[in-house]
Amino acid sequence: MRQKLARVLSGVAISALVFGGAAACKADSGSEGGGSSAACDLKLGFFGPLTGDAAGLGIHMRNGTKLAIDQYNKENADCKVTLAEYDSQGDPAKAPALAQQAVGDQKVVGIVGPAFSGESEVADPIFDEAGLPIITPSATRPSLSTKGWKIFHRGVGNDISQGPALGRYIKDVLKAEKVYVVDDQSAYGAGLKDEVKKVIGSSAVGEDKIQVKQTNFSAVSTRIISSGATALFFGGYYTEAGLLLKQLKGAGWKGTMVAGDGVNDANFIKVAGEAVAEGTILTCPCAPATAAKGTFLTDYKAAFENAEPGTYADVSYDITKIFLEGIKSGKSTRADLLSFVKSYNKAGTATGVTYKFEASGELDPAQVVVWAFKVNAGKVVPDVEIPKA
After folding, report:
1. Nearest 5°: phi and psi at 147?
2. Which of 142, 100, 108 is nearest to 124 (CA)?
3. N or C terminus of the chain: which is more exposed, having fewer CB within 10 Å?
4. What single DSSP character describes residue 173?
């Protein structure tokens, strides 16, 4: 009897070791055919800036993810998913340790993020080695999809779509004949600037590089004014963009700043000042979150004290729901969830985008849109969808 009991207990222990790491418990009503196959006790991670100079962008994305998980948990109260937050502060130096923390937690089966391209470059190899699937809502550097990472997926267009669209807006809408270009030397900012330059060509009359966390822009402001440029393209994030424009306008410049999605946040207006920011053009390889489909807008406002959803909040919501749909169907391991994401082909309920990923992890190009937004009366408002070339 003791020997038989020992064999039974041994089998239970082995089963716990095999299945415990994958957190593969299942919810079941007890009736044949009537139970749920949902995997339980799992985690989804959000990886991006929640504090620091770029937190405004990250918080809205995290909120989109949180809203999707909260709604899922309300509908699946007996089999919940936990949100794990990895606050990178947008700093590539902090990303590897956070990525190691995420892959070390076997209950984490998917990552929404990383949010930025620089942190993606150093975190994604760690995720790839661990087989932990990711979908970034916002890291747009084109080279991220060329590394051979099996786990990489991008829920928006990359800068090969956004950069040329920016260039076309500068040429065809602003009709700027003299353009000065500046980037912050980040993986994102420098890459976006390179794509813009390909389109504006000889209209670029000067170029400068600044540093992340730089605060004094007097020298570059002088060179911009001296160039006679009527438009300034800035590749980088909203804090440096706001400070640069504030000092530039203070020195008497009358032109228009044009920037990408890294500046497309209400905090840009706070940094620059409402009067200074007025008329600035900001783009995004996404449609306006405030025009999201279904009940997303009202749900978001109800969940977050009537706040408007910021850039990529709706994208984060939709890609989180991809992971949740996989978990609901019983995908309890990283490998199974990765396979589920790779074969996904459905429209998001908030964006309306059909999330279908190419072999490289890129979103199907047919689904990519680029919008221009304009700062008007203290708000970032939709201007126009920029036509494809």
Report:
1. -85, -10
2. 100
3. N
4. I
Per residue in 56-107, pLDDT (tens digit) is 999 999 999 999 999 999 999 999 999 999 999 999 999 999 999 999 999 9
User: CA-to-CA distance for 250 and 22, rounded, in angstroms?
Assistant: 57
**Cα–Cα distances in Å, from 222 out to 14, 102, 219, 251?**
70, 45, 5, 8
Q: Could you tell me the pTM of the whole model?
A: 0.89
Q: How many helices (H) and strands (E) does the chain have?
A: 13, 15
Nearest to 371 by CA among 297, 313, 296, 311: 311
Q: What is the pLDDT of residues 322-363, one digit of tens each?
A: 999 999 999 999 999 999 999 999 999 999 999 999 999 999
3-state DSSP call for residue 347?
Answer: strand
Mean pLDDT of 233-245: 98
CA distance 47 to 60: 12
Please answer whether residues 184 and 237 qualify as being in contact, where contact means their C-beta atoms are separated by less than 8 angstroms.
yes
The token pair at 210 is: 């600044």
253: left (phi over 0), alpha (psi -120 to 50) or beta: beta
Residue pointed to by tokens 């994208």: 315
- Report the 10 Å Cβ neighbour count for 147: 14
Reported as type and span, the H/E element at residue 38 is none
Helix (H, G, I), strand (E, B) or coil at 183: strand
Q: DSSP class of residue 355?
A: E
Query: For all residues of the chain together, what is the average pLDDT?
Result: 91
- Cβ–Cβ under 8 Å, residues 66 and 112: no
Mean pLDDT, range 274-283, rounded to an integer: 98
The residue assigned the tokens 């600035």 is 280
Torsion angle in degrees (nearest 10) through CA of 367, 372, 375, 377: -80
**Angle at which helices 187-200 and 117-130 cross, to 10°:** 120
Q: Do 132 and 102 contact (CB within 8 A), yes or no?
A: yes
* Other CB atoms within 10 Å distance of the CB of residue 157: 21
Q: What is Dmax (Cα atoms) for the chain?
A: 93
**Facing residues of 283 across strands?**
372
Please measure the distance between the N-terminal and C-terminal CA atoms of the chain and give it in whole angstroms.
78
DSSP one-letter string for 80-101: -EEEEEEE-TT-TTTHHHHHHH
Burial 36-50 (b: 16+ CB within 10 A, else e): bebbbebbbbbbbbb
